[in-house]
Design goal:
8 strands, alpha/beta, binds 2-phosphoglycolic acid, 14% strand
Length: 250
C-alpha cells in the first residue's frame, strides 16, 4: 500500500542538545495530533541513538550511509551502525551528497543495496539541476538517475524503498516547484515504475516531493494524486512548521 510520509532532513544543523529538544517537540506535537501519515526525522548521525530513545510517534532516519559495510573507511558510517543506533530509514542520493561529495550512481546503488539488506528503508533522491530543466532534459535526467540505481533492483526489493523527487533548483532556494511541475514529474516517475515493473508496484510506491516545501505551499503540493508527501529541509528545523506541513497531507 502506498504510504503518506513527511520526512524532515535536518542536514548539518543542531547540536546534540538542540536536536534532542527539536525531536522532543516534534514527537510531542505528533502525540497530540494523531495522523496516519508516517512522520520521520533525519538528524545528524551523532544524534541518532539519543533521539531514538525519546521518539514514540515519530520514525528515525539517517541522512546518508557508507557504500561499504565495514572496514578501514575512516569517517564513514555503515548501515549496520545506523540500524544499531535505532533508525529505520536512510536518505540516499541527496543532491548535496551527489554534488559536494561526488557520489555517483554506482556508489548510490551500493548504498541502497546495503540498506535494503538490513531492512533499512532507503529514501532515494533524484532530481535535475536548473540548467537541465531549462534545456528541457529534466525527464531524461531523472530517468537516467533511476535507471542506473534503483531500477536495477527486482520488484520485491524495489517495492521496499521510497522515492523522493527533489529538483535541485528548488532545494534551499525558497523557489519550490509549482504543484503542476511536481505532479508532472511524479506522474512521469510512476509511469517509469509501471513500465519497469508493473501497475501495482507503481501504485504502491511512495514518491515524496522536496525543495522549499513549507507550511504555505505544502497543501497545494500534497493535494496532487502522485505526490505522497514531502522531504523537508529548512522548514523541518522548526517543530511547529514541520508539523503544519504534516497536517497538510490530505
Ligand atoms: P529545503 O531542502 O526544504 O530546505 O529546500 C529540502 C531537502 O534538501 O531535502
Amino acid at each position: 500500500m502506498r504510504k503518506k510520509i513527511v520526512a524532515g532532513n535536518w542536514k548539518m544543523n543542531t547540536t546534540l542538545a538542540d536536536g534532542v529538544k527539536l525531536a522532543t517537540d516534534v514527537n510531542n506535537l505528533a502525540e497530540k495530533n494523531p495522523t496516519k501519515t508516517i512522520v520521520i526525522v533525519a538528524p545528524p548521525f551523532t544524534h541518532l541513538s539519543e533521539i531514538a530513545k525519546l521518539l514514540t510517534k515519530v520514525h528515525l532516519s539517517a541522512q546518508n550511509c557508507a557504500s561499504e559495510s565495514s572496514g578501514a573507511y575512516t569517517g564513514e558510517v555503515s548501515v549496520g551502525m545506523i540500524k544499531s543506533a535505532g533508525a529505520g530509514y536512510v536518505i540516499i542520493g541527496h543532491s548535496e551528497r551527489r554534488t559536494y561529495f561526488r557520489e555517483d550512481n554506482e556508489a548510490l546503488f551500493k548504498k541502497t543495496e546495503l540498506a535494503l539488506d538490513l531492512n533499512l528503508v532507503p529514501i532515494f533522491c533524484c532530481g535535475e539541476v536548473l540548467s537541465e530543466r531549462e534545456a528541457c532534459v529534466h525527464f531524461d535526467i531523472v530517468k537516467k538517475q533511476l535507471d542506473e540505481t534503483i531500477f536495477k533492483f527486482d520488484k520485491v526489493r524495489f517495492s521496499k524503498l521510497v522515492v523522493a523527487y527533489e529538483p535541485v533548483w528548488a532545494i534551499g532556494t525558497g523557489v519550490n516547484a509549482t504543484p503542476e511541475q511536481a505532479q508532472e514529474m511524479h506522474k512521469y516517475i510512476r509511469e517509469l515504475i509501471r513500465g519497469k515493473y508493473d501497475l501495482q508496484t507503481a501504485e504502491n510506491t511512495t514518491i515524496l516531493y522536496g525543495g522549499s516545501c513549507k507550511p504555505s505551499n505544502a497543501g497545494d503540493l500534497f493535494k496532487n494524486n502522485d505526490v505522497d508527501g514531502g522531504l523537508i529541509g529548512g522548514a523541518s528545523l522548526n517543530a511547529a512548521d514541520f508539523m503544519a506541513i504534516v497536517k497538510s497531507i490530505p
